[in-house]
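Researcher: Please predict.
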Amino acid sequence: MKCYYHNDKDAVGICKNCNKGLCIECVKEIENGIVFCSDKCANEVISISSKILKTYNDTNKIHIKNGILYLVFAILFLLFGVLIKSNLKFILYPLGAGFIIATILSLSNIRKLKE
């Protein structure tokens, strides 16, 4: 691939925003090896990266809230299963166990997102 601005030079990087090939003279770098061709592209990349980070953080918060809610439901179903003296126990215990599983899955997603 050749440089978008200098057709006689080989590209050493590709702009993260506009995908133009860039030679060693044209390439600019933000952080973590992210390459861009202009300040406009750099601003776009920074903006998109910050939105991705915010979405990631919001998703983690949602998984934590869901995990807590599932745990509360699990405790309630299991508690009612112990306190009620009817055949509803056979429904309440599996529901409580299901919410415990949902809690574990929701909280395990936080670890997966961090990786």
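Model: The CA atoms of residues 81 and 88 lie 7 Å apart.
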